[in-house]
Amino acid sequence: MPSERDLFANFERMRREIDELFGDVFERTGLTQSRTFTPEVDVYYCGQPARAIVKVAVPGVDPDEVSVEVRGRQLVIAGRRRAQEAEGRLYQQIEIAHGPFKRVIELSAEVDAERATASYDDGILRIDIPLAQPEQSTRRIPIEGAE
Fold first, then answer.
1. Which one of 15, 16, 104, 126 is most buried, counting C-beta atoms within 10 A?
2. Does residue 47 register a pLDDT over 70?
3. CA-to-CA distance for 121 and 11, rounded, in angstroms?
4. Exposed (0-12), middle (13-18) or buried (19+): which is 63, by Cβ within 10 Å?
5. What is d(CA 131, CA 49) in angstroms, rounded to the nearest whole number?
C-alpha cells in the first residue's frame, strides 16, 4: 500500500502535467489563459480590547471602487481593478491581472461591526474590527416549590 506521501507526490506530478498540457495548447493557439485578480489577505487578532485586523493587498485599485461589509462573522470585500488604457500601445506581455474581485473571509470570533474602521495606504487596505464582548449577565433563577 503506498504511503500518504506517495499519494500526494503522484497527485502533484499529475497536476503539473495537466498544467503543462493545457498551457502548451494555449501557447500554440495564441490564446491566453484567463487571469483574474484575487487580492491576497492577512488576518490576525491582537490588542486590548481584542480586535481582528485584516490586511488586503489591492495595489492599483481605486479605494472608491472597493466595498467592505461585515455579515455576522463574514467580512466581504469586493471591488474592481481596472485595466490600463491600451490605446496606442502594442503589448509584448500582459501579466497584471485585472477585473472584478470578491473575497469572503470567515472570522473566528463574533465582531462588533458598528465600530469597524477601514483605511487605505500604499496599496494596502486595512480593516480593524473590534471583537464583540461576551455578555456578562447574571440572573438568579428561583426554584419552584421552595419556600
1. 126
2. yes
3. 41
4. middle
5. 8
